[in-house]
Structure formats: C-alpha cells, structure tokens
Amino acid sequence: MRSVKKGAQKAPVRRRVKRGGGFRLRFLSPLREMSSGTRNVLLFSLYGLFFLLVPGIAWYSGYPQQCWVRTVDAAIDLTKRAGFSVKEVLVEGRHAADSQSILDAIQLKQGQAVFSVSPQEIQQRLETHPWVRQAAVRRQLPGTLYIQLTERRAVAIWQHQKKFYVVDEQGVVIAPMSRQQPDLPVIIGKDAPLYAPQMLKILDSFQSIKQRTTSLIYVSGRRWNLLLNQTIEVRLPEKECEKALVRLSHLLEQKNLGPNEVYMIDLRMPDRIIIRPSAAASVRLKVKGKEA
C-alpha cells in the first residue's frame, strides 16, 4: 500500500470527455449555486406566480362568470316560481308621449321574473325618449313595476324648412309635431328655439298681448317681431323689450286697434311709434309719432 502523508489533499479525479475534441464539460445547477435564502425567495416567487396565473387564466376563459350567471339564473327562476313575476306595469305622468313608444322603451314581457328587471336600465331607456325629461322606476313586490314620468312641457311650435317641431320650456326641440296644437305660438328663425322660452316668459307679464300673439319671428339672431292675430306685425327692439311691450299694451288699449286696421307697429325707437294703418283706419287713428 502507498503511504499517504498527513495534511496532503487528495487530488481531484479528472475525467476526460472524448467528445468535443478533448474539452472538459462542466454542467452547473443554478439552484445549487445559489444561497439558501435566495433559493427560497425564488421558489416562493414562482409559487406565487403560479397561484396568480391559474385563477387569471380561468377568469379570462370565462368559466367563473358562466358559473355565476347559471347560479343567478337559477335563483331568479326560483323566485319566479314563487310568484315574483311581472303582472302589472303602472305608469304615472304620461300625457304627450305615445303609450306604445313608452312600452317599447320599457321592454318587458308579462310573466317575466320581477328580479330579472333592472330599474336602472329601464330608467335610462325611458330618459332617451324625446318627451321624457326624467323617469323614476321601482319594483313593487310581488309583481308590479311602478314608473313615474316627468314629461317635457311644450311651449311653442318651431317652423323650420317647411316642417314643424315641438319646443319645450328649456329650448329643447322635442320632436316633429304629430298633431295640431293651436294653443301654442309658432316661432320662426334659425336659433328661435334657444331664445323663445325667454321671450315667452316676458310675454307672461303681458297676457293681453300674448293671447293675441300667433307667431314670433327671430330676426337676424338679435331681436323679435310679433305677429298679432295673424295680421299685425309688431317690431320689437333688441334691448329693453319689456318697455316696448308696455308701450304696445297702452297703445292697444287706448286706440282699440282692430286686426284689420293696422298691419305694422314699429317700436324699435324708444321715443316714437311708427304705425302703418289700413286706408280705412288712417283717419280714425291719432297716435303721437310718425305715421306712414
């Protein structure tokens, strides 16, 4: 036997690899080369990534959603069998809106499960209706749907490009006129719907004039002309319209002007009134100012 000296290290065994032209190949294991702390952190991160990816992939595939939808549908079906189904729809506040168009917006079927009805969705659909300004929808168990409508209030008829449209108190063009509404004045002009509510509010203080007003013409985007009794044209100023209407009111009361006696009254100048009477009435009328 060969004697081994104390303290001498054992020479490493070298193995030659015949392949590769005699080069020695050494394969390293990344995990073995890491410290135990780093290795634990890496493994923990991989496990965490795995547990995050699996639910994410499942959710992306839609499987949990499908299970939830089936569960909800089954619960709603049970409530329907228990008697919670739509048997009646109560609508309050409908006057001008067509009843069929309201039903089309509600989109309900008799016998539908009441808990399958979304009051918020019905409210949103109703408020897209041209005549509905605001809607409130709620369930009344076991089988009633209650709807409260606040409709737009028509104040004028807008004549534009040989067509007629209903206008509300906020200047909103509601819809084409579907039926005759002789109690509403006709407004004419490109931007007339935007400014007509303000003018009509001013006329509320002059009821004798408003009752005779059949049309309002918005001129040059800055002032109004009134047509009284479909025959008398009244030209109002751009500013201080209320003062001009006070003068017009006194004139109509004092002179008792008939629709066949005058065809134009000009109030655009604050210090005079220009009147164009008919030939028969020119002798009777005596008004301060210029007559033409």
Structure description:
It is a single chain. With 292 residues, the chain is of the alpha/beta class. The chain has 8 helices and 12 strands. The chain has helices at residues 30-33, 36-61, 63-81, 99-106, 119-126, 192-203, 207-212, 241-255; strands spanning 88-92, 132-140, 144-151, 154-160, 163-168, 173-176, 186-188, 213-219, 223-228, 232-235, 262-266, 274-277. The chain has a 9-stranded mixed beta sheet with strand order 6-5-4-7-8-9-10-11-12. Strands 1-3-2 form a 3-stranded mixed beta sheet. A hairpin with a 3-residue loop joins strand 9 and strand 10 (232-235). It is elongated and about 115 Å long. The termini are far apart.
Structural topology:
Elements: H1 30-33, H2 36-61, H3 63-81, E1 88-92, H4 99-106, H5 119-126, E2 132-140, E3 144-151, E4 154-160, E5 163-168, E6 173-176, E7 186-188, H6 192-203, H7 207-212, E8 213-219, E9 223-228, E10 232-235, H8 241-255, E11 262-266, E12 274-277
Parallel strand pairs: 1-3, 4-7, 7-8, 10-11
Antiparallel strand pairs: 2-3, 4-5, 5-6, 8-9, 9-10, 11-12
Summarize the structure.
The protein is of the alpha/beta class and 292 residues long.
Contiguous low-pLDDT stretches (5 residues minimum) are: 287-292
Q: Please state the average pLDDT score.
A: 79
Distance between the termini: 150 Å
Number of contiguous helices = 8
Largest sheet: 9 strands, mixed
The secondary-structure element order is HHHEHHEEEEEEHHEEEHEE
